[in-house]
Amino acid sequence: MTRHYNFCAGPAALPTAVLKRARDELLDYHGHGLSVMEMSHRGEDFVAIAERSEVDLRELLAIPDNYRVLFTQGGASLQFAALPYNLLGAGGRANFVHTGIWGKKAISETRHLFGDVHVAASSEENGHSAVPRQQEIVLSADAAYLHYTANETIGGLAFDYIPEAVRPDGTPVPLVCDMSSSILSAPLDVAKFGVIYAGAQKNIGPAGLVVVIVRDDLLDRARDDMPTLFGYRALAEAGSMVNTPATYSWYLAGLVFDWLKQDIGGLTAMAAINARKAARLYAAIDGSGLYANPVTLRNRSRMNVPFVLADPRLERPFLEEAEAAGLLNLKGHRSVGGMRASLYNAVSEAAVEALTDFMADFEKRRG
C-alpha cells in the first residue's frame, strides 16, 4: 500500500502513527474483544479514554483550571449559533472582526438568529489580504463579546496577534475565537480568551467532533430559549455527555494528542516544524515567476497556503500532474479558485519538500 501526500483543507491528513494505532486497536481494544466504536459512552473504558484525552489536551495547551473543555458535535459551524445563545443572555450585541468566509458565516448566523450585530473591523476593503490592526478594531458600546477567526482556512489569512476586546469606555469583554484550522499548531495563551472553539478535522482528529474551551464565568450567560444540547453549562456538568457523543472521533482525537506529546514533543516542537514547512513553500512561491500568493507577509497562514498560477490555463494540468505524482487535494476552494496547500500538523516536511520539488519542475517544463 502506498500512502500519498494529502494537502486537503479538511477532513485533513491524520498522523500515520495514529492511523496505525487505530488500525491495531480497531477490532479488539486492549483485549476487551470489541472496538471503541461499539463501546458504551457511559462504560468505564470509554470514560477513561475521554478523561485521558482531556488531560492531554489541557497539558498541551496549558489550559488553566478555571476553563472547561467540552467535546461536542456539529462542527465549528454549529458553534456559530451556540455561541450567541450561550453568551447573549445578559443582553448586548455580538461584535466581530471579519477577515474572510468563515468569519462572514459566523456573522450571518448570529444576525439570522438575533438580528443586529456589530462588525468592529473588516478586511473586506483590502480583499482579505491583510488583517485589521488592533487600533482599527472599534467595539460597540453594548458589546457582549468580540469574535474573530484566527486563521481563515479558505483565504489563508492569519492573525499575527491576539486582539484586545475592550469597549470604547474601557470595559473588557470576552474574546471568542474560531481556531479550527490553527489550534495545536503552536503554543497558545488560553487565558487571553473567553471561548475558543475548533472543528476537529484539521489538527485535532477526524470530522464529527468540535472542541470548546470556555472560561467558568461564562457558563451562566445563556439565553433562556437556548436549545438544551447547545448549553455549555449542561455539557460541562455532564462531562460532554448530555447525549451520545461522537465516540470514535473523540478516541482518535485522544490518539492525536498523545502523538503530539510523545512523538513530536509538544507544541513548541510542533511550531518549529510548521514554521519550516511554511517557509519552504512560501519561498518556492515567492521565488518563482509562475506562482503567487496574495496575502500580506505578516498575515500569511502557516496552515493554509493559497496560490495562483500566472497562466490560469495551466491549473488543470498542474492538478492532474500533481495527483499523478501523489500530491493530493491541491485544488483551491470553489469560492476562490486557484490552488491551496494545507500544511496541518500531520503533513510532513517530506510532503512539503515533494510539493516544492514538483512545483519547480512544473514551472521549468510549463512556465
From TrEMBL:
Entry superkingdom: Bacteria
EC number(s) per entry: 2.6.1.52
UniProt cofactor(s): pyridoxal 5'-phosphate
Gene Ontology biological process: L-serine biosynthetic process; pyridoxine biosynthetic process
A Gene Ontology molecular function term of the record: pyridoxal phosphate binding
Enzyme class: transferase
Keyword match Cytoplasm: yes
Domain Aminotransferase class V: 5-355
Cofactor: how and how many bound: Binds 1 pyridoxal phosphate per subunit.
Sequence positions bearing N6-(pyridoxal phosphate)lysine: 202
Entry-linked InterPro entries: Aminotrans_V_dom (IPR000192), Pser_aminoTfrase (IPR022278), PyrdxlP-dep_Trfase (IPR015424), PyrdxlP-dep_Trfase_major (IPR015421), PyrdxlP-dep_Trfase_small (IPR015422)
Functional pathway: Cofactor biosynthesis; pyridoxine 5'-phosphate biosynthesis; pyridoxine 5'-phosphate from D-erythrose 4-phosphate: step 3/5; Amino-acid biosynthesis; L-serine biosynthesis; L-serine from 3-phospho-D-glycerate: step 2/3
Record's GO cellular component terms: cytoplasm
Residues that bind L-glutamate: 42
UniProt cross-references to HAMAP family, sorted A to Z: SerC_aminotrans_5
Known partners and oligomeric status: Homodimer.
Family under the similarity heading: Belongs to the class-V pyridoxal-phosphate-dependent aminotransferase family. SerC subfamily.
Record function comment: Catalyzes the reversible conversion of 3-phosphohydroxypyruvate to phosphoserine and of 3-hydroxy-2-oxo-4-phosphonooxybutanoate to phosphohydroxythreonine.
PANTHER family found in the cross-reference section: PHOSPHOSERINE AMINOTRANSFERASE
Protein name: Phosphoserine aminotransferase
Species, as recorded: Halomonas ventosae
